[in-house]
Amino acid sequence: MAVADRxxxxxxxxxxxxxxxxxxxxxxxxxxxxxxxxQLPFVDGTLPTTGVLGLDVSVEAAADLAAVAALNGLxxxxxxxxxxxxxxxxxxxxxxxxxxxxxxxxxxxxxxASNLLVDVFGEHGRHARSAVGVAALPLGSPVEVELVVQFx
Length: 152
Known about the structure:
- With 152 residues, the chain is α+β, with helices and mostly antiparallel strands.
- The protein has a single domain, classed as CATH 3.30.1330.40.
- It has helices at residues 3-9, 59-81, 106-121, and strands spanning 27-30, 33-36, 87-98, 128-134, 143-151.
- A 5-stranded mixed beta sheet has the order 1-2-5-3-4, covered by helices on one side.
- The longest helix is centred in the middle third of the chain and has 23 residues, at 59-81.
- The chain starts with a helix and ends with a strand.
């Protein structure tokens, strides 16, 4: 099944690639890998929620935002590769979670991104991962997600 068909089956649409907020590009290919820049959970150009986990954003809401950030990462990959059908597998996900002192549920938050990737690519969406707590993220975003995918 084509990845676009799988996305449609899941009710997902790849968004427009977010314009970089600095001197970088959304994604770069090197060898058989695509590395995305950190993706925020923009929806139609805005962050639906801002804040810090453990203070003012729930784990469930942040997990949903992590899925949006992963979808934005897939849009960056698709823009570079001319679609997602050339993706062989998702290799690595790095998720950053804006965390209050003592907050330790970063892996649960980043499961939102991981689950979306498995939903889209099946077993080829399973990946190595890091889930990192940070004091703050750009624009007050609760989450940021980076992807590394292999393509042919």
